[in-house]
Amino acid sequence: MENKIDFQNLAQKYQTPYYVYDFDYITKQYQELKTAFKARKSLISYAIKANSNLSVVRHLAQQGSGADCVSIGEVKRALKVGIAKYKIIFSGVGKTDDEIKEALELDILMINVESEAELHRVELLAKELNKEARISIRVNPNVDPQTHPYISTGLHENKFGVDINTAKRMYIKAKNSDFLDPIGIHCHIGSQLTELSPIKEAVNIVANLVRNLKAALDIELKFFDVGGGLGIVYDDEKLIDTNEYAQTILEALFGLDITVVCEPGRFIVGNSGYFVTKVLYEKINSDKRFIIVDGAMNDLIRPSLYNAYHKIEVLNQNDNKSKCNLVGPVCESGDFFAKDIELPQTEHNDLVVIHSAGAYGFTMASNYNTRGRVAEIAIENNQDRIIRDRETFEDMIALEEKYL
Ligand SMILES: *Cc1c(COP(=O)(O)O)cnc(C)c1O
């Protein structure tokens, strides 16, 4: 990864910590995937939870992207910045009645149903509104995606989706209902996938179900949603080639007249983003060296939550390196960005750049320790601009203060 971003200049202009996203990189990733599927009708529905900043989502809307949403809030973000309602999918294992009703009223492409109980709720609510709910069913093909257990979703032991036999029952119910219109099928087996074989296995299982539904039950689906999950380089991962990925999916769909839907999150934004923080202090506690920076786990939780690796770079000229832990000011021992890594000796105010922070970075941030969420910056055509203000103390207390 080559830095063409002047982190120092941005730090002077906007203070630290901050997130910065390279919008041209986002365009490149989106176009790469869209092009890979060019042999067929396809819809790339960006998974908003990866990075839901309105300017990021609008940038993708302008490329023609759809949206994969896991809350009604995300659906509204998508609509707010101009993503067409017929390109919006609403997924998630625990949709509330209010969310389902609102999704039906907003007339989005489809609700991705994850259980029989949910199908029942969707039918009832659609009936109440006198609408026909367009749905897809999330099938859990029971394949091991070979990724981190927290981000693996395609095994029966996970909470996501339904098994093949349950899915069949649900399609029959939907076909026989006046208030349900089964138009799609979905599977998302996990995140940060770097092996093609589990994807191949999953799409073949699901494609066979599509054929079976057509032949045995005369149910003809229009959308084949392969979920997201394409991995990115954090360290030295060998990635799935996007053309091979698309080819594998298109081969599985041989003979079917169906639109491919793909829901990448991390692939689109992950390596567009950097989290930049500055050194406050160095200290040594019983032989152990710590670098303490102004960013913390509340800003970027992936190392604490998943033990995730992020490439870390100190911007100074010092090459006297030694092992240390890079930690934040939050009162938790879990507040670290890296443990036992070799970093140069640092001085107060040296900048530390944490790579691959564009996905599941800011969106997982919190106000823990009454720390305001940081500023977000976009770079496009070598121009920088702020796309979310740093939160102030007043922002943080606004919803409480009135009750004093
Ligand atoms: C999280 C999620 C995605 C995106 O996953 P990435 O690994 O970021 O590509 C896509 N679809 C669904 C249903 C998801 O829950």
Structural description of this entry:
- The protein has 404 residues and is an alpha/beta fold.
- The chain has two domains: 37-264, Alanine racemase (TIM Barrel, Alpha-Beta Barrel); 271-403, Lyase, Ornithine Decarboxylase, Chain A, domain 1 (Beta Barrel), CATH 2.40.37.10.
- The protein is built from twelve helices and 17 strands.
- The strands form two sheets. Strands 1, 10, 11, 12, 13, 14, 15, 16 and 17 form a nine-stranded mixed sheet that branches. An eight-stranded parallel beta barrel has the order 2-3-4-5-6-7-8-9, surrounded by seven helices.
- Helix 2 (23-36) runs parallel beside helix 3 and helix 8 runs parallel beside helix 9.
- The chain is globular.
- It starts with 6 loop residues before the first helix and ends with a helix.
- The chain binds pyridoxal-5'-phosphate.
- Pyridoxal-5'-phosphate binds at residues 47, 49-50, 68, 70, 91, 188, 191, 227-230, 263-267, 359.
In short:
This protein has twelve helices and 17 strands.
Core attributes:
9-stranded mixed sheet; 404 residues; alpha/beta; binds pyridoxal-5'-phosphate; globular; TIM Barrel; Lyase, Ornithine Decarboxylase, Chain A, domain 1
How would you summarize the topology of this molecule?
Elements: H1 7-14, E1 18-22, H2 23-36, E2 42-47, H3 54-63, E3 66-69, H4 72-80, E4 88-90, H5 97-106, E5 110-113, H6 116-128, E6 133-138, H7 164-175, E7 180-186, H8 196-217, E8 223-225, H9 242-252, E9 259-262, H10 266-269, E10 273-285, E11 288-293, H11 302-306, E12 312-315, E13 321-327, E14 336-344, E15 351-354, E16 375-380, E17 383-388, H12 393-401
Parallel strand pairs: 1-16, 2-3, 2-9, 3-4, 4-5, 5-6, 6-7, 7-8, 8-9, 11-13
Antiparallel strand pairs: 1-10, 10-11, 10-15, 12-15, 13-14, 16-17
The chain binds pyridoxal-5'-phosphate.
